Amino acid sequence: MIVRSVAELIGTEREVKTPNWVSRRLLLKRDGMGFSLHETTVFAGTETYIWYRHHLEAVFCIEGEGEVEVLPEGIVYRITPGTVYALDRHDKHWLRAKTDMRLVCVFNPPLTGGEVHDEEGVYPLVQETAAASG
Protein backbone atom coordinates (compact mmCIF):
# COMPACT_ATOMS: atom_id res chain seq x y z
CA MET A 1 0.00 0.00 0.00
CA ILE A 2 1.16 3.53 -0.75
CA VAL A 3 0.20 6.28 1.68
CA ARG A 4 1.44 9.85 1.15
CA SER A 5 0.34 13.34 2.10
CA VAL A 6 0.81 16.52 0.09
CA ALA A 7 2.50 18.11 3.13
CA GLU A 8 5.31 15.55 3.13
CA LEU A 9 6.13 16.28 -0.55
CA ILE A 10 6.84 19.98 -0.04
CA GLY A 11 10.52 20.70 -0.62
CA THR A 12 11.26 17.26 -2.10
CA GLU A 13 11.92 16.18 -5.70
CA ARG A 14 8.18 15.42 -5.95
CA GLU A 15 7.39 19.14 -5.74
CA VAL A 16 7.97 20.87 -9.09
CA LYS A 17 7.67 24.67 -9.28
CA THR A 18 7.42 27.03 -12.25
CA PRO A 19 6.44 30.71 -12.37
CA ASN A 20 2.84 29.70 -13.27
CA TRP A 21 2.23 26.66 -11.07
CA VAL A 22 3.47 24.27 -8.41
CA SER A 23 2.79 20.53 -8.71
CA ARG A 24 3.04 18.00 -5.89
CA ARG A 25 3.34 14.59 -7.48
CA LEU A 26 1.65 12.07 -5.22
CA LEU A 27 1.94 9.05 -7.51
CA LEU A 28 4.52 8.65 -10.28
CA LYS A 29 5.44 5.99 -12.81
CA ARG A 30 7.86 4.33 -10.39
CA ASP A 31 4.94 3.70 -8.01
CA GLY A 32 3.59 1.16 -10.53
CA MET A 33 -0.06 2.30 -10.64
CA GLY A 34 -0.26 2.84 -14.42
CA PHE A 35 -1.09 6.55 -14.00
CA SER A 36 0.31 9.50 -12.08
CA LEU A 37 -1.62 11.68 -9.62
CA HIS A 38 -0.77 15.30 -8.83
CA GLU A 39 -2.06 18.18 -6.74
CA THR A 40 -1.32 21.32 -8.72
CA THR A 41 -1.86 24.95 -7.80
CA VAL A 42 -2.06 27.29 -10.79
CA PHE A 43 -1.32 30.84 -9.71
CA ALA A 44 -3.84 33.68 -10.10
CA GLY A 45 -3.38 35.83 -13.17
CA THR A 46 -1.29 33.30 -15.09
CA GLU A 47 -1.84 31.91 -18.57
CA THR A 48 -0.13 28.66 -19.59
CA TYR A 49 -0.04 27.17 -23.09
CA ILE A 50 -0.18 23.37 -22.86
CA TRP A 51 -0.16 20.52 -25.36
CA TYR A 52 0.11 17.02 -23.94
CA ARG A 53 1.20 15.38 -27.16
CA HIS A 54 2.31 12.22 -25.32
CA HIS A 55 -0.14 12.13 -22.41
CA LEU A 56 -3.84 12.10 -21.64
CA GLU A 57 -4.85 14.19 -18.63
CA ALA A 58 -7.94 14.52 -16.47
CA VAL A 59 -8.21 17.56 -14.17
CA PHE A 60 -10.59 18.07 -11.24
CA CYS A 61 -10.88 21.56 -9.72
CA ILE A 62 -10.95 21.64 -5.90
CA GLU A 63 -10.61 25.41 -5.36
CA GLY A 64 -10.42 28.59 -7.38
CA GLU A 65 -11.67 29.83 -10.71
CA GLY A 66 -10.29 29.98 -14.22
CA GLU A 67 -10.83 28.77 -17.74
CA VAL A 68 -9.47 26.42 -20.33
CA GLU A 69 -9.48 27.42 -24.01
CA VAL A 70 -9.30 24.55 -26.51
CA LEU A 71 -7.26 25.24 -29.64
CA PRO A 72 -7.61 25.82 -32.51
CA GLU A 73 -11.40 25.99 -32.01
CA GLY A 74 -11.22 28.75 -29.40
CA ILE A 75 -13.93 27.15 -27.26
CA VAL A 76 -13.60 28.42 -23.67
CA TYR A 77 -14.81 26.42 -20.66
CA ARG A 78 -15.18 27.96 -17.21
CA ILE A 79 -13.42 26.04 -14.45
CA THR A 80 -14.80 26.24 -10.91
CA PRO A 81 -14.77 23.89 -7.89
CA GLY A 82 -16.39 20.58 -8.81
CA THR A 83 -15.53 20.86 -12.53
CA VAL A 84 -13.59 18.15 -14.32
CA TYR A 85 -12.06 18.47 -17.76
CA ALA A 86 -10.35 15.67 -19.68
CA LEU A 87 -7.86 16.25 -22.47
CA ASP A 88 -8.85 13.06 -24.27
CA ARG A 89 -7.57 14.08 -27.71
CA HIS A 90 -4.16 15.49 -26.78
CA ASP A 91 -5.86 18.89 -27.00
CA LYS A 92 -3.73 22.02 -27.34
CA HIS A 93 -5.07 24.55 -24.85
CA TRP A 94 -4.57 27.65 -22.76
CA LEU A 95 -5.13 27.35 -19.02
CA ARG A 96 -5.91 30.67 -17.37
CA ALA A 97 -6.29 31.19 -13.62
CA LYS A 98 -8.46 34.07 -12.40
CA THR A 99 -7.71 33.11 -8.79
CA ASP A 100 -5.31 30.50 -7.44
CA MET A 101 -6.73 27.18 -8.63
CA ARG A 102 -6.08 23.96 -6.73
CA LEU A 103 -6.42 21.02 -9.11
CA VAL A 104 -6.09 17.25 -8.91
CA CYS A 105 -4.52 15.93 -12.13
CA VAL A 106 -4.20 12.37 -13.45
CA PHE A 107 -1.83 11.49 -16.31
CA ASN A 108 -1.64 8.47 -18.58
CA PRO A 109 1.02 7.39 -19.28
CA PRO A 110 2.26 8.33 -15.83
CA LEU A 111 4.82 11.08 -15.36
CA THR A 112 8.21 10.27 -13.88
CA GLY A 113 8.40 13.35 -11.69
CA GLY A 114 10.51 16.18 -13.05
CA GLU A 115 8.59 17.04 -16.20
CA VAL A 116 7.90 20.68 -17.06
CA HIS A 117 6.39 22.06 -20.27
CA ASP A 118 8.81 22.67 -23.13
CA GLU A 119 8.56 25.57 -25.60
CA GLU A 120 5.65 23.80 -27.36
CA GLY A 121 3.78 23.27 -24.07
CA VAL A 122 4.63 19.54 -24.18
CA TYR A 123 5.78 17.25 -21.39
CA PRO A 124 8.47 14.95 -22.78
CA LEU A 125 7.79 11.23 -22.76
CA VAL A 126 10.40 10.08 -20.23
CA GLN A 127 11.18 6.39 -20.15
CA GLU A 128 11.58 4.94 -16.68
CA THR A 129 10.91 1.49 -15.30
CA ALA A 130 8.08 1.36 -12.78
CA ALA A 131 9.00 -0.20 -9.44
CA ALA A 132 6.60 -0.39 -6.55
CA SER A 133 7.61 1.73 -3.58
CA GLY A 134 6.04 2.58 -0.27
From TrEMBL:
Pathway(s) the chain acts in: Amine and polyamine biosynthesis; ectoine biosynthesis; L-ectoine from L-aspartate 4-semialdehyde: step 3/3
Pfam annotation, one family: Ectoine_synth
GO BP of this protein: ectoine biosynthetic process
Catalyzed chemical reaction(s): (2S)-4-acetamido-2-aminobutanoate = L-ectoine + H2O
CDD domains referenced in this protein's UniProt entry, alphabetically: cupin_EctC
Record keywords, A-Z: Lyase
Tagged with keyword Metal-binding: no
Enzyme Commission number(s): 4.2.1.108
GO-annotated molecular function: ectoine synthase activity
Stored SUPFAM superfamilies: RmlC-like cupins
Record NCBIfam families: PRK13290.1
Function in brief: Catalyzes the circularization of gamma-N-acetyl-alpha,gamma-diaminobutyric acid (ADABA) to ectoine (1,4,5,6-tetrahydro-2-methyl-4-pyrimidine carboxylic acid), which is an excellent osmoprotectant.
Family as reported in the entry's similarity comment: Belongs to the ectoine synthase family.
Protein name: L-ectoine synthase
